[in-house]
Amino acid sequence: MPDATTAATTPDFDALAVGDVVAEREFHLTRESLVRYAGASGDFNPIHYRDDVAGSVGLPGVLAHGMLTMGLAVQPVVDWAGDPARVVDYQTKFTRPVVVDPEAGADVLVTAKVGLLDPEARAARIDLTVTFEGATVLGKAQVRVVLA
Prior knowledge:
Low-confidence stretches: 1-8
């Protein structure tokens, strides 16, 4: 039986409705963020920190790592669910890069909305809208969360 702390942080499946926004967050990325992520992930591809290299391969500038963007996008859902083990599936397609300006950085907005409810499994499909400069950067981003 869950303790009071666990019960308090578990979203109430029965209170959810398709279309409910369950989380929204903005993430500010800087070049420093990219360097730190490179160190943590081991992905030192220079398109993530050198403008000259990014430009030489036809990119508009230094790009945030795709997996960094994907990881940031799911975090509000993990926080809402109250336990990362409740997230049982996460899928997306990369549709547009996040260009991180050397001075201004980049702001990525994540909105998580209930897309489908499965009463039998007591699971919710959470649809993510992930945008940068008003354009979608992750397509068909869906997270399955079990709230049983």
